[in-house]
Specification:
heterodimer, A: 115 residues, mainly beta, six-stranded mixed sheet, 52% strand, globular, B: 113 residues, seven-stranded mixed sheet, four-stranded antiparallel sheet, 0% helix
């Protein structure tokens, strides 16, 4: 079975500091994508960052970057210069194969940014 | 551009009843997916529709069904509600046929008493 594991249920970081959220996945597929989604309190989930498995270069989006270790099946999210608005539940997710939008989500990490 | 709209936002039902949830995707998006979110099971994929065809289905009982209309709007139905069906039901749309870049609605929170 294809799985996504987030081992950190909760994390806390001070404003302006850097934090890294961990994610591991398990698959035998060659064609897949990995994602980090953010779900702020009582607001809709939004895509933070996306990584294609065939790309060796780590994806970055402004203050958000990933460390994609394909052999280790690891996909961590680094948030630099943390802001209060980054407080949210963060979900790691994977998608395998071709024409589908079926995402497999991890259990999430609740990140609290402290002032 | 309007986002994904889900209705109703909140609803309370009793065991044995049925419920229909609606989702209007972003204009131009042809793919609509549904997810169930609960504290115990997390986010689980229900089904996905693309151009009125169910493209993929999750591991849920047949009481859960859905459909998509020609304007890409989608509905999901849960019959014979059980207490365990209490959850936040999320709809997501995409303007691509694949690759997981989803735009989510705020969800419909169903409480079954």
């Amino acid at each position: 079975a294809q799985t996504v594991t987030q081992s950190q249920p909760e994390m806390s970081v001070q404003e302006a500091e850097t934090v890294t959220l961990s994610c591991t996945y398990d698959t035998s597929e060659n064609n897949y994508y990995l994602f980090w989604y953010k779900q702020p309190p009582s607001r809709q989930m939004i895509l933070v960052i996306r990584q294609e498995a065939y790309k060796q270069q780590n994806a970055t989006e402004n203050r958000f970057s990933v460390n994609f270790q394909k052999a280790a099946k690891s996909f961590s999210l680094k948030i630099s210069d943390s802001q209060l608005g980054d407080t949210a539940m963060y979900f790691c997710a994977s998608l395998y194969g071709g024409a589908t939008n079926k995402l497999i989500f991890g259990t999430g990490t609740l990140l609290a940014v402290q002032p | 551009k309007a986002g994904v709209t889900q209705t109703p936002r909140y609803l309370i039902k009793t065991r044995g009843q049925q419920v229909t949830l609606s989702c209007s995707p972003i204009s131009g998006h042809r793919s609509v997916s549904w997810y169930q979110q609960t504290p115990g099971q997390g986010l689980q994929f229900l089904f996905e529709y693309f151009s009125e065809t169910q493209r993929n289905k999750g591991n849920f009982p047949g009481r859960f069904s859905g459909r998509q209309f020609s304007n890409s709007r989608s509905e999901m139905n849960v019959s014979t509600l059980e207490l365990g069906d209490s959850a936040l039901y999320l709809c997501a749309s995409s303007d691509r046929s694949s690759a997981g870049e989803l735009f989510f609605g705020e969800g419909s929170r169903l409480t079954v008493l």
